[in-house]
Amino acid sequence: MTSRAIVLLSGGLDSATVLAMARAQGFETYALSMRYGQRHSSELDAARRVARALGAQRHEIIDLDLRPFGGSALTDDTLDVPVDGNSTGIPITYVPARNTIMLSVALGWAEAVGAYDLFFGANAVDYSGYPDCRPEFVAAYETLANIATKAGVEGQRIRVQAPIIAMSKAEIIRTGIGLGVDYGMTVSCYLADAEGRACGVCDSCRLRRAGFEAAGVADPTRYQTDQTDPAAGAKQ
Amino acid sequence: MTSRAIVLLSGGLDSATVLAMARAQGFETYALSMRYGQRHSSELDAARRVARALGAQRHEIIDLDLRPFGGSALTDDTLDVPVDGNSTGIPITYVPARNTIMLSVALGWAEAVGAYDLFFGANAVDYSGYPDCRPEFVAAYETLANIATKAGVEGQRIRVQAPIIAMSKAEIIRTGIGLGVDYGMTVSCYLADAEGRACGVCDSCRLRRAGFEAAGVADPTRYQTDQTDPAAGAKQ
């Protein structure tokens, strides 16, 4: 029987690549997205397109509205998403415990369908300084998963796979292109408009654009404005 | 400034006791419940009453519908809740990764409001054999929490407190009564009706009833039927 894997799928570049990698390893993939109150909900449309294009067996979008908690520019309309490229430390776009929550929901689905692999597009190289994107987080989560679950208690080994964690953005892009990922389908921008067009100036856009440049690959991103003057893309 | 704590509050006996214990320790308490598609949604009404009666500063009920995943008699109408008291191993009422998910949502709220303590009513004595109610689970979650979060990275210590984990049900009840908990407000039954009346025969009812007997305390539970013949309470 084909092994099943749960793949966290945001609709962005990284998780699309991870879905393609899980498929290439022969897994039957169960893609999981979350509607957590993010501003950039067009990424969920992107997730649907990506799941279909990359042959996910199932795709579930789970509703978990984190807006009552506040605390992040991605979920709190009173906080601005930085567009100046100058943030240091853990940025305001950090959503408290988001990856912990998403992995936990994935773990629940894994138990229900008999999957032992969770794929997760954390990246610790060209990333935004989030604590829950680091290798030590992935390792700690895997330890927890094997203690927390019926599968773990009964001697199955649950693996948390973060196959792009040590890759540069350019390496991720080259890997995905080798596996047939169409990055024009993906949305990474924190301030994407309803059609999924990118602002070009938030941290996520900056990382993504630099990745295509470093990979020597034409950037297929649809931007909201002519990007010869990147600052023109800013929008609040 | 008073320290804040997030308290997982199901509306049952155990978590009500834990909320009272957190308050008695002087915490400003943020009570968190979850609507995850459970059959026994009257426990959420109980959670509201308990939060108010025990002086929680805030009470949030977060929606996270786990029914698309299936796999548990508590969320899947095609599976029966056992009422014969004879289950062995991890029972069908286990909801995959539920406590991991709830602690993760609590962790997100903790980060957003600057709380460093998560209170959790796990119990490893008179319990139902769930892997995510064991001391090793609590310890693994605390380790994860300190790696996963901005607070942990910045040197704050997050604590996962499971103050009733080693208590018998009778000890829990005596502790709660000492702190003024009115257990008539709480609902533990997996098959409670819309008014919160208990079936008397599911595993949760059996543990609870035995606890009141062992504590030598009158059982304030409202049952669906006369309980002189416990089997009469079964309901599917």
Task: Write a concise synopsis of the structure shown.
Helices cover 34% and strands 11% of the residues of chain A.
> Which runs of chain A of at least 5 residues are low in confidence (pLDDT < 50)?
229-236
Cα-atom radius of gyration of chain A: 17 Å
Shape of chain A: globular
Number of domains of chain A: 1
CATH homolog superfamily of chain A: HUPs
Briefly note the CATH topology name of chain A.
Answer: Rossmann fold
**What's the CATH architecture name of chain A?**
3-Layer(aba) Sandwich
Main beta-sheet strand count, sense and barrel state of chain A: 5 strands, parallel
Q: Identify the strand order in the major beta sheet of chain A.
A: 3-2-1-4-5
Average pLDDT over all residues of chain A: 86
Order of helices and strands of chain A: EHEHEHEHHEHH
Q: What is the CATH domain class of chain A?
A: Alpha Beta
Q: For this entry, what is the oligomeric state of its chains? A: homodimer
Count of helical regions of chain A: 7
Pairing-aware structural class of the strands and helices of chain A?
Answer: alpha/beta
Number of strands of chain A: 5
Q: Give the N-terminus to C-terminus distance of chain A in angstroms.
A: 50 Å
Name the biggest interface: A-B, 46 and 46 residues
Helical fraction of chain A equals 25-40%
Strand content of chain A: 5-15%
Protein name (chains A, B): 7-cyano-7-deazaguanine synthase QueC
